[in-house]
Design brief:
Largest sheet: none
Strand content: under 5%
Low-confidence stretches: none
Helix content: over 70%
Number of strands: 0
Order of helices and strands: HHHHHH
Distance between the termini: 37 Å
């Protein structure tokens, strides 16, 4: 199997995981309505699951699904700058973001390890599982930030996209 094919399958698998998380949130939300308003049996696990799925969906989605071209930027300022300034902006922001996350990574790992002793109220899952998705997220953001710096140094960074160039049909 080629690298491109493996990458495409991994990306598709990550999209499916995020879709399943979103779908489970919707179904759980409907169950919450059913239990609370139809059966008059309020349950707490539904709120807990929706919160966990939302957290994991956001972190997992950004780490493995969202492409760099889809990330929201301050395009008004970025697009108004000449190419050299955009490259400098990419280098400074990429190194700053990667540096801060690398610096905080040991403390995050300590906190996640510490939270293993605490459990959620209804599902009784260790908080280390809930917060554990933060580590792959941080590593992915560090890698993305350093790749942005690398692309800027090589001169093939993301082009500035003008608002009128988007297809809103």
């Amino acid at each position: 199997m080629s690298f491109e094919r493996l990458r495409a399958r991994s990306y598709r698998g990550a999209e499916i995981i995020v879709g399943l998380l979103l779908g489970s949130m919707f179904v759980t939300f409907l169950l919450q309505i059913l239990f609370r308003y139809v059966l008059s049996l309020p349950v707490g696990w539904t709120v807990e699951w929706v919160t966990i799925a939302w957290l994991w969906g956001i972190l997992f989605g950004y780490a493995f699904v969202v492409r760099d071209a889809d990330v929201i930027r301050l395009d008004i300022i970025y697009a108004a700058m000449p190419d050299g300034v955009r490259r400098i902006m990419d280098i400074v922001t990429g190194l700053t973001c990667a540096g801060i996350l690398i610096w905080t990574l040991p403390a995050c790992l300590d906190y996640i390890t510490f939270m293993h002793r605490e459990k959620t109220a209804y599902l009784r899952w260790p908080f280390s599982i809930i917060f554990g998705m933060y580590l792959p997220f941080v590593v992915a953001v560090i890698i993305r930030s350093l790749l942005t710096v690398w692309r800027a140094l090589r001169g093939n960074h993301l082009p500035a996209i003008q608002a009128e160039s988007h297809d809103y049909d």
